[in-house]
């Protein structure tokens, strides 16, 4: 937990920060629910909106890998704007100090369209499938962005690795340490053994690509309801250089999403091994996150079942 936890931003401070950043005298600031970091929608009456995101309340328990999300998102947005022509959202402002609103914060945008969670109930089954297909195409474009080493998007000398197995093991270890801190009774030794046993399959991934670990929530997707086309994502804070199939959109993908992306990740034995390792990662994350913030999810039984299944399958698979 930060030594100086952020206080709740005053509405007047948010208003001033938004008006200064967007160079507009009239900005509507609306708090959005359903996000780990405090998130506000900023509208100026020009047909699109922006997002202001700041750290959560000091009462919210963060996992180790969640601490630097604002910095990661700032780096990801800057990268995407230099690597993808016509990329919709950009980094408007990033404050690494707490002076303006009492917390570090980031403003991104513009976003055109509606948040999928707000319009999902009005979409037909076909419209939703088309949106999912468009999301697959959008993610494929992001995953086409390549890096030089695996690991954090904010790379500095000495950070990153040429081995995807090493980076993945480190990511999994971080979550397991959070679980151990919470005194969760989980098969940690078995999970560590799974990664060691299947290291070769992980290291078959040799090209670091841009991955958003958590992107598939309806609260994160912006869609043009006129043509069911995904126009952007609200949150790029889980970006890293890795294997695109580690993204949560492959945890339980729909057929439409896979069609849009272009390829299912279960062709040969090594791909299946990696996918079970990735299921292990996401199901473990869900279990540990539930123990830290039980109000976010109603139940973790499905995640525990997925975790057990992944370990069982990986134990049976001999490369």
Shape: globular
Q: Helix fraction?
A: 40-55%
What's the N-to-C terminus distance? 41 Å
Number of domains: 2
Major β-sheet annotation: 5 strands, antiparallel
Low-confidence stretches: 1-6
**Number of helices in the DSSP assignment:** 10
CATH architecture of the largest domain: Alpha-Beta Complex
Q: Could you give the order of strands across the largest sheet?
A: 1-2-3-5-4
What is the CATH homology-level superfamily of the largest domain? Aminoglycoside phosphotransferase (APH), C-terminal lobe
Number of strands: 11
Please trace the helix and strand order, writing H or E for each element. HEEEHEEEHHEHHHEEEEHHH
The average pLDDT is: 91
And the CATH topology of the largest domain?
A: Aminoglycoside 3'-phosphotransferase, Chain: A, domain 2
Describe this structure as you would to a colleague:
- With 319 residues, this protein is α+β, with helices and mostly antiparallel strands.
- Helix content is 40%, strand content 16%.
- The chain has a 5-stranded antiparallel β-sheet. A 3-stranded antiparallel β-sheet has the order 6-9-10.
- Strand 1 (28-32) and strand 2 (38-43) form a beta hairpin.
- Helix 5 packs parallel to helix 9.
């Amino acid at each position: 937990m930060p030594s100086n936890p952020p206080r709740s931003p005053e509405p007047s401070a948010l208003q001033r920060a938004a008006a200064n950043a967007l160079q507009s005298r009239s900005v509507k600031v609306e708090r959005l629910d359903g996000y780990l970091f405090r998130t506000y929608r900023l509208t100026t009456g020009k047909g699109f909106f922006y997002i202001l995101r700041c750290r959560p309340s000091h009462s919210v328990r963060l996992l180790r890998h969640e601490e630097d999300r604002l910095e990661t998102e700032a780096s990801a947005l800057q990268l995407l704007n230099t690597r993808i022509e016509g990329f919709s959202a950009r980094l408007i402002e990033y404050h690494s100090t707490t002076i303006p609103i009492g917390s570090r914060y980031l403003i991104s945008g513009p976003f055109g369209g509606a948040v999928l969670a707000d319009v999902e109930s009005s979409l037909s089954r076909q419209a939703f499938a088309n949106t999912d297909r468009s999301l697959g195409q959008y993610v494929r474009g992001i995953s086409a962005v390549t890096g030089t080493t695996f690991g954090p998007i904010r790379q500095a000398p000495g950070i990153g690795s040429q081995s995807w197995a090493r980076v993945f093991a480190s990511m999994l270890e971080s979550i397991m340490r959070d679980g151990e801190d919470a005194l969760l009774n989980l098969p940690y030794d078995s999970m560590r053994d799974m990664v060691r046993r299947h290291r070769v399959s992980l290291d078959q991934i040799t090209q670091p690509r841009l991955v958003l670990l958590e992107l598939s929530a309806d609260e994160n997707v912006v869609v043009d309801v006129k043509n069911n086309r995904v126009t952007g994502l609200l949150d790029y804070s889980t970006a890293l250089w890795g294997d695109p199939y580690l993204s949560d959109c492959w945890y339980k993908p729909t057929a439409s999403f896979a069609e849009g992306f272009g390829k299912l990740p279960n062709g040969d034995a090594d791909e299946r091994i990696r996918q079970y390792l990735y299921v292990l990662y996401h199901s473990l994350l869900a279990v540990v996150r539930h123990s830290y913030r039980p109000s976010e999810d109603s139940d973790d039984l499905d995640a525990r079942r997925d975790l057990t299944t992944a370990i069982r399958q990986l134990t049976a698979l001999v490369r």
